[in-house]
């Protein structure tokens, strides 16, 4: 199986979980025109939505955040001083880093609003760096993606992997697997802030088997992570009677897979803001910003510590308190309900091509660091051998950057899951497609899912 990125250079860096602390000025598209809003007022005060359990959405389904004129740029800082310039600009301006340079010589990818582009490129140039514009108009990329979803099919791919599904389509797909295959059980592990089911499946033969747990899509805009989880479900469901390896995996383990753990955010990326990352909860600390980063909301490490923000407008807002988000609580409850049987925990993201493991909130090695590295290397090596895709392997703290409150650290340290991993999927940095970032074309769903599944099988000890 040849990877579409196999020919690219292996020079890549991890994606950033943005730290910019701002409420961005955006334009909202509607079917009848466009209008500007200096702030997204998320409370419908007249309807008494403040602090209620059922928040009124910030926009209706006919209004979309418009990224016309927003640019995506790549920069390679060569010195520590240049790195510090980027960190400072991140906090000073309305910047959304898609990938952050951790060390001199590694690339950064950043989205810049049109009103800040001249200032940003000037500051970067004054610091001796070159900012290369990879995307001149992000909205065109989003429009192309929507057009592709409506009109493009890929006959070589199964129907469910020809395009990115909506949340309700995920629900129907999981119900269909459950109805058709007796080793698949449809489950709901909780409700989102807006009342949507957080869905999943249990796949096994027999009872009391070691559990392999997946949470996917905790960051709403990372669509290929959702799709990859669905592919894993599809393989375990449909191939049980046809593939001896799959049969072994189902007979020996119980697979608990949750492809859309942030359904409110995922729906919002389809209806309103393709770049939305967080949940859609209403904070008690803000009347103008909505949502928290559920992957900063777990009770592990100093709450709202390194790699997070205490400001509700920030993309990495840690939440009002640990487990303030229904979505993170649902994952917590699902893991704790069977923690004595939890064997593996996988958290799927994109992009950047990485196999990572604890810790994220500290630079100390995990007690079983070498075992974790061996498992991750086994997965990465299987992918490399089969497709030519090369993943970076290492602890989260050293491979991406330090971050507090992640699901993987919590599963490992608090729930006792000794094999916990965070995977960053396609595309790789500095490939021909890296600037697409979270908007990986649908034709790459299947190869991405296939190579990820190949690596996971190898990692857990099954070729």
Automatic annotation (TrEMBL):
Chain's role: Extracellular metalloprotease that contributes to pathogenicity.
Top-level taxon: Eukaryota
GO BP: any one term: proteolysis
UniProt subcellular location: Secreted
Residue ranges of every copy of the Peptidase M14 domain listed in the record: 163-463
Protein name (database record): Zinc carboxypeptidase A 1
InterPro entries, sorted: CARBOXYPEPT_ZN_1, M14A-like_propep, M14A_act_pep, Peptidase_M14
Keyword entries, A-Z: Carboxypeptidase, Disulfide bond, Hydrolase, Metal-binding, Metalloprotease, Protease, Secreted, Signal, Virulence, Zinc, Zymogen
Provenance organism: Ixodes ricinus
Cofactor: Zn(2+)
GO molecular function, one term: metallocarboxypeptidase activity
SMART domains: Zn_pept
Active site: 424
Family: Belongs to the peptidase M14 family.
GO CC terms: extracellular space
């Amino acid at each position: 199986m040849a990877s579409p990125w196999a020919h690219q250079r292996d020079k890549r860096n991890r994606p950033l979980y943005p730290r910019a602390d701002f409420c961005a000025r955006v334009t909202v598209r509607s079917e009848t025109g466009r209008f500007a809003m200096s702030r997204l007022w998320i409370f419908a005060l007249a309807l008494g939505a403040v602090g209620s359990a059922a928040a009124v959405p910030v926009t209706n389904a006919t209004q979309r955040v418009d990224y016309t004129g927003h640019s995506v740029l790549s920069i390679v800082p060569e010195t520590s001083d240049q790195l510090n310039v980027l960190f400072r600009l991140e906090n000073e301006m309305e910047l959304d880093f898609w990938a952050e340079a951790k060390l001199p010589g590694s690339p950064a990818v950043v989205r810049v609003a049109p009103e800040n582009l001249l200032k940003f490129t000037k500051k970067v140039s004054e610091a001796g760096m070159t900012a290369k514009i990879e995307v001149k108009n992000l909205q065109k990329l989003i429009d192309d993606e929507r057009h592709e979803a409506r009109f493009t099919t890929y006959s070589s791919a199964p129907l469910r992997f020809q395009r990115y599904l909506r949340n309700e389509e995920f629900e129907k797909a999981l119900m269909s697997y459950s109805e058709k295959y007796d080793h698949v059980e449809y489950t709901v592990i909780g409700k989102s802030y807006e009342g949507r089911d957080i869905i999943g499946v249990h796949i096994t033969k027999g009872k009391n088997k070691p559990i392999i747990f997946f949470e996917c899509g905790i960051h709403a805009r990372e669509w290929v992570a959702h799709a990859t989880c669905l592919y894993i479900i599809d393989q375990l469901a449909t191939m049980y009677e046809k593939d001896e390896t799959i049969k072994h995996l189902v007979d020996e383990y119980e697979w608990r897979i949750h492809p859309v753990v942030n359904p409110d955010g995922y729906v919002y990326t389809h209806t309103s803001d393709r770049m939305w990352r967080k949940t859609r909860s209403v904070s008690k600390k803000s009347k103008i910003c909505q949502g928290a980063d559920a992957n900063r909301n777990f009770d592990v490490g100093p709450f709202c510590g390194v790699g997070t923000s205490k400001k509700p407008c920030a993309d990495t807002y840690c939440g009002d308190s640990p487990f303030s988000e229904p979505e993170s609580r649902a994952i917590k409850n699902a893991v704790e309900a069977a923690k004595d049987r939890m064997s593996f925990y996988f958290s799927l993201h994109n992009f950047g091509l990485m196999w990572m493991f604890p810790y994220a909130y500290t630079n100390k090695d995990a007690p079983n660091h070498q075992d974790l590295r061996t498992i991750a290397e086994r997965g990465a090596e299987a992918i490399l051998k089969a497709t030519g895709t090369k993943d970076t392997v290492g602890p989260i703290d050293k491979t991406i950057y330090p971050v507090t409150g992640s699901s993987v650290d919590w599963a490992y340290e608090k729930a006792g899951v000794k094999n916990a991993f965070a995977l960053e999927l396609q595309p790789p940095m500095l490939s021909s497609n890296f600037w697409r970032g979270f908007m990986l074309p649908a034709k790459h769903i299947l190869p991405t899912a296939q190579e990820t599944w190949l690596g996971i099988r190898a990692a857990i000890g099954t070729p």
